[in-house]
Amino acid sequence: MKVFLAAGGLIVETAGKFHALPPALDLDRLFSDDDPGALLRAALPAAPHLASLPPARAPLQSQEVWAAGVTYLNSRSARMAESKAAGDRSFYDRVYSADRPELFFKSTAHRVASPGEPVRLRRDSRWNVPEPELTLAISAHGRIFGYTIGNDMSSRDIEGENPLYLPQAKVYDRSAALGPCLLITDAPLAPNTEIILEIRRGGATAFNGQITINQIKRTFAELVEFLFRDNAFPRGCLLMTGTGIVPPDGFTLQSGDEIAITIPPIGTLLNPVA
């Protein structure tokens, strides 16, 4: 089933029909539960039907958004290439092969763009790209119960200048987008699930690429286990799992571009660039 956040609260889509959940069943309640899927299924019989889906918001409430880096071979190569000015580039290779993954804080809810809302470019950056990522919905108990689409906007020149500048390259207003929904399922996604990126400029495709999630080096369970080490998430969290789609070095986003990220079981996340 799919869960959308709209102005009136949560809406569940199942078997092609939309159901409005009661206001007391919000995302914080969902992420805090031992079994979010069972909670939703129990609420559905009493949920009234809706004729259509209202505009959807980013599917988070008070959850933190975290991200994993260097999880695909392509991202390792890109990070090494962009760090020419930083001297020793081999640390990215070491991160890729290390037992401990790279995990970093990405965003709070107020910095996240909803579907259709603009993402932003840093004013002090000259090289900006989207990073399309499968994003895990993780309960307060550390259980992966769903998936959404994430856009981890990144300023490659800032991070490439010095890896200690990673927070500035990654964390700023509207540096992330999530949506269009949470796909709630007890089954893992198929290994051949695709992530598809298209960037349109002036009505034409400026860049496109795709990858399957079986190209990720680490298991999702491994990433979650490291994230929850000595970290409590009373209302759960969302974890972007890294990108394997990297535009060429000569490409940078421009104001007015349109970013479309599609993961077929979930949908398409569409955001213009401010």
List the helices and strands and how they pair.
Layout: E1 2-6, E2 9-14, E3 17-20, H1 27-32, H2 36-43, E4 49-50, E5 64-69, H3 73-82, H4 90-97, E6 102-107, E7 112-113, E8 128-129, E9 132-138, E10 144-152, E11 154-155, H5 156-161, H6 166-170, E12 176-184, E13 194-201, E14 204-212, H7 220-227, E15 237-240, E16 258-263, E17 267-272
Parallel strand pairs: 5-15, 7-12
Antiparallel strand pairs: 1-2, 1-12, 2-3, 3-4, 5-6, 8-11, 9-10, 9-15, 10-12, 13-14, 13-16, 16-17
Structural account:
With 274 residues, the chain is of the alpha+beta class. The chain has helices at residues 27-32, 36-43, 73-82, 90-97, 156-161, 166-170, 220-227, and strands at 2-6, 9-14, 17-20, 49-50, 64-69, 102-107, 112-113, 128-129, 132-138, 144-152, 154-155, 176-184, 194-201, 204-212, 237-240, 258-263, 267-272. It folds into two domains: 2-50, no CATH class; 64-272, Alpha-Beta Complex (Fumarylacetoacetate hydrolase, domain 2), CATH 3.90.850. A hairpin with a 3-residue loop joins strand 16 (258-263) and strand 17 (267-272). The longest helix has 10 residues, at 73-82. 41% of the residues are buried.
